[in-house]
Design a protein that fits this description.
Blueprint lengths: L2 E7 L3 E8 L4 E8 L11 E2 L1 H18 L5 E8 L5 E3 L9 E2 L7 H20 L8 H11 L1 H5 L3 E3 L1 H10 L3 E3 H4 L5 E2 L4 E2 L1 H7 L8 E3 L4 E4 L4 H5 L6 E3 L2 E2 H7 L9 E5 L3 E6 L12 E4 L5 E7 L3 H11 L5 H6 L9 E3 L17 E3 L7 H25 L7 E4 L6 H11 L3 E4 L4 H14 L5 H8 L2 E5 L3 H21 L3
Parallel strand pairs: 1-5, 5-14, 5-15, 9-12, 16-22, 22-23
Antiparallel strand pairs: 1-2, 2-3, 4-7, 6-8, 10-11, 13-14, 16-17, 17-19, 18-19, 20-21, 23-24
Helix pairs in contact: 1-5, 2-3, 9-14, 10-12, 12-13, 13-16
């Protein structure tokens, strides 16, 4: 029997999972690494920490398993990070990560001088601090010597693929988040490259996420047990690969991720983009198009309120105590600013309409409602841009709470489904590896066979109508308190 590896490169750790031909994960190993915070709003990591973590995880898996049976491997990677190599393939400086926000001036320049209309025309997106292009401008302005040494510009997972295979490549889903990739035409934007002062030969070859770029180099056979026959499939950005791992591939479906941050993800029938740039228009891992909106404080808001304010870690008890009534309390979960759809790094959190009448459980419910409203805000932009969705699949830590899922369904007004696996990122990468190996003809066929729905939460129409009124108040609260 053949086996497959999925390598999930996250911000805090890397996880390597081994699966059989049936998609069953039979073993996994992870390694953590430090987050470097040298200055306020800076967030960096050493790419060699990712590589060393991957190699150590694979060594441990090799002790427990015969990895010579691995037919192919693939990646799910944290997006937007800037990895720079010199002509000797040495890392020039620590990678600037997706959550690094030092690039406020560069984002302002791109959106207001180059212009949002131009950015939308060239890339289908506007500039955000998280994206890769502003990071390149920052290095160009503040680290001229480093900028002049650049030979290769990579995204995080591409560095691992390059080390294993020696092939300099990336994929359409990950490149979509750079702001120098023309999403519509599947090519680099010559206009944006000129703005950034970089050349196309410094950028990786453009591949589909399920495409084989090469094989594992022979030198790794003794180190980690993978043979030169093991195919390296380039993989994709974590959100697209996670969507594959939840079977959110067909147009008309959406997935909602309830992690520390929140994501609403929607495959599209054809190319589209939001004319105001409120949500991202990217390529999906299957090469088609998608909408994606990311909120910065989803379950992170609830964690903050329960742990820092109520001083409890018993999430289940707190959530189970909330009642059925919909109160007047409003909560804005903008504890780290906000990304989609308001793109306001200066937005802050609020409680509103408090009184002596309300109790602890009412505030907990208001926080949950605020989180769901922030995601519904993203969903409404997608609906206004022509999306139709009969249901949503929900993943992440929030799926542990039936009450939270019911509130989410009541607010969205559509059924919410959970799935049988919690390994979306790793399983998505494994599915990419399987399709690249030819085990399945497409991502759609593989995901539909390997991933099944588990539970369904249906909306209460009366509550949905009440929540629509409360959502309008939620929007007004932000607008009244918006900082100039």
């Amino acid at each position: 029997m053949k086996h497959y590896l999925g390598i999930d490169l996250g911000t805090s750790s890397i996880k390597v999972s081994l699966a059989d031909e049936n998609g069953t994960i039979i073993d996994s190993e992870s390694r953590s690494y430090p987050l470097l915070l040298p200055k306020l709003n800076w967030s960096e990591q050493n790419p060699d920490d990712w590589y060393n973590g991957m190699i150590e995880a694979l060594k441990t898996l090799h002790i427990r398993n015969d990895l010579s049976s691995v037919a192919s491997l693939s990646f799910s990677g944290q997006m937007h990070g800037l990895v720079l190599l010199d002509k000797y393939d040495q890392v020039i400086r620590p990678a600037l990560l997706w959550n690094d926000s030092r690039t406020v001036d560069e984002v302002d320049y791109l959106n207001n001088v180059i212009g949002e209309d131009t950015l939308l025309k060239e890339t289908s997106n506007i500039a955000l601090c998280g994206f890769t292009a502003p990071k390149i401008l920052w290095v160009k302005k503040h680290e001229e010597d480093n900028f002049n040494r650049i030979s290769k510009i990579m995204l995080p997972k591409d560095y691992l693929a390059y080390r294993l295979s020696g092939v300099f490549a990336s994929d359409v889903s990950d490149l979509s988040g750079t702001l120098f990739f023309d999403v519509k035409n599947r090519s680099y934007s010559a206009y944006m490259l000129d703005i950034l002062g970089i050349r196309e030969e410094q950028l990786p070859a453009i591949k589909d996420s399920y495409e084989v770029i090469g094989h594992v180099k022979k030198e790794y056979q003794k180190i980690i047990g993978l043979t030169p026959k093991t195919k390296v499939v380039i993989g994709g950005g974590d959100q697209a690969v996670g969507a594959v791992g939840t079977n959110t591939i067909a147009p008309g479906e959406i997935s909602i991720s309830l992690g520390t941050s929140g994501v609403v993800f929607a495959p599209l029938k054809s190319y589209n983009f939001d004319k105001k740039g409120q949500i991202h228009a990217f390529r999906h891992a299957n090469g088609q198009f998608m909408f994606m909106g990311c909120t910065l404080s989803a379950m992170g808001s609830l964690k903050w309120f329960l742990e820092e304010v109520l001083h409890t870690t018993d999430f289940s008890k707190e959530i189970s105590s909330i009642g059925e009534e919909i109160s007047d309390i409003l909560f804005l979960p903008y504890l780290c600013g906000e990304r989609s759809p308001i793109n306001d790094p200066r937005a802050t959190g609020y409680f509103s309409n408090l009184s002596l009448f309300y109790k602890r459980e009412d505030l907990v419910k208001a926080v949950i409602e605020g989180i769901c409203f922030s995601l519904y805000d993203v969903y409404q932009v997608m609906i206004n841009d022509g999306l139709t969705a009969p249901f949503a699949r929900v993943i992440g830590g929030g799926t542990k709470s039936p009450k939270l899922l019911q509130i989410l369904s009541d607010i969205f007004g559509i059924p919410m489904k959970t799935i049988t696996t919690s390994d979306g990122g790793a399983l998505g990468a494994i599915i990419l590896a399987m399709v690249g190996d030819g085990l399945y003809p497409s991502l759609e066929v593989a995901a539909s066979k390997l991933i099944k729905d588990k539970e369904i939460y249906y909306p209460n129409e009366e509550k949905h109508q009440l929540y629509l009124k409360k959502f309008a108040e939620y929007k007004n609260l932000y607008l009244r308190n918006k900082k100039d």
